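Example 3.
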Amino acid sequence: MLLEVRHLKKRFGNQVVLDDININLDRGQVLCVLGQSGSGKTVLFRHIIGLLFPDGGEIRLDGQVVSTPTTKPADFEKHRKRFGILFQGAALFDSMDVGENLAFPLREHTHLTTKEISKTIGEALEMVGLREEFKSKMPSELSGGMRSRVGLARAIVMKPEIMLYDEPTSALDPIMTDKINDLIMSLRDRLKMTSIVISHDIGSAYKVADKIAMIHEGKIIFDGTPPEIRSSRNLYVQQFLRGYREKFYAFSEEEKYANPVDISKIKPARPPKKGAAQQNAPLSVPIDIANKKFEMPVRARTGEPPR
Amino acid sequence: MTALLRPIAFIGRTVIAQLGKVRDFILGTREYGELGFRTFSKMPLAVKNVDITTSHMYTLGIESIPLVTMIAIFLGSATVTQAVYQMSGMIPLRYLGALVCKTTITELAPVITSMVFAGRVATGIAAEIASMKGSEQLDAMAVLRLDPIRYLIVPKAIACIVMLPVLAVWAILMSFVGAAVTVAISVDMTMHTYLSGMKLFFNPNDVYMSVGKTAIFGAIVAITGAYFGFKAKGGAEGVGNATTKAVVTSAVLILIFDFVVAVMVM
């Protein structure tokens, strides 16, 4: 097992952000971590790359414990070279041109000559589908997709073992999203890279992932393959995959989505009278779930709950 | 009973809140000191990235010359005008040059130049680092094992330490020009008398002290800007807060250290 996340816990103040997270990843696999915004996936990502350290649990690389609550940032430093990261906005150094962005880590951590660095940069740019002329462009002159590709090129020049992508397609158009997905797969195939993709893009996950983990409110609520997630009976998972939540849109508390709800228990506490609905139909009716009262919108003409 | 306890509870809450602020101030001071120490300890590594440092020397120092020149000329003019007004009827005007020379070299030019420099540079450093933090560039540096202090702060700190004394000396010269022009235009004395007065109490050690203290002010400006840049939180508002705090704290620290240097020299 290349990467193991065991019983990872993290809280910020009183808020529990990660609660007993367990993830395993084999060499060469692509794991996609899905979840809503604010579900804790970026915090998990920052733990894996050593930008945050857990309050409980541990992270292992090749069986060796690399991150625990007592790990100091300096102790993690030696493991960082095993990771390559593509940040959400690419995080290019905007005071440097593309070539300098790629050359910077090479100049500082390798003994390559200027000519060898230039060759390595050219190869990395070619691998992400950019021509060498892009070397002289400033990050501000690039489109979102190009920035992502340059960020990817910068991450792979150091030939990392594990590549992490933080929402790589979140701000891209469908064509560019497909290109980035192809790049993720091509890096896996050409460089045998193990990858973790943090995303909320289902289409990308189906395309690139060998394994999918779904995180919700700091907990892993699904861990399996793409076919397995499609057939999951977890109501939240299904709602996430379909982007469909009509039956529950009246719920004011989002945490209700965490656990499957028995639809049969949703019954109007005060059903509208027949006939009265035509003229003065109420906009919502009170409903009662597990002794908690909610307002459920109704169809204006019939006074019935929406289907 | 509850009504009686309410004021006590209010006082308790206020005291706890104030103690929290004191604790934050102490922790902040420690962090500031640590940042300063780490910056100085990594300065020898700057020889590997001389080009970054020289580029900052140009942008932070040379590009400040027009601003410093304009301010220094008016500073000299205002000093002469005020001195003539204050001296009239009490002190002979032949000492005007001596007064202008002493005040400009020891206090006015170095402190005002440092304040202007802080307004331009500390805010720039704070805004740059805060923006880099917001756009995850600092995280990217950490992941690429590129030390932000070594690559971001050290070149800027060296540029400030070297260039602020240069600017201060330039400001002294420009103040003298402004003062001389004002004397020639509006004061009833010969230029020879004025210049003789300047030479009367001129002491090269005053210039060395100015150069020395502006080097300290340069370090303060760079480290303060960097500190508030690193501490910035949030988006555009966080960047704005960081720049404001950087310039205010730089100005206060410059005046405090100006006093410390004055006491030490005495």
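Chain B touches chain A through 13 residues (CB under 8 Å). Chain B has a mean pLDDT of 91.
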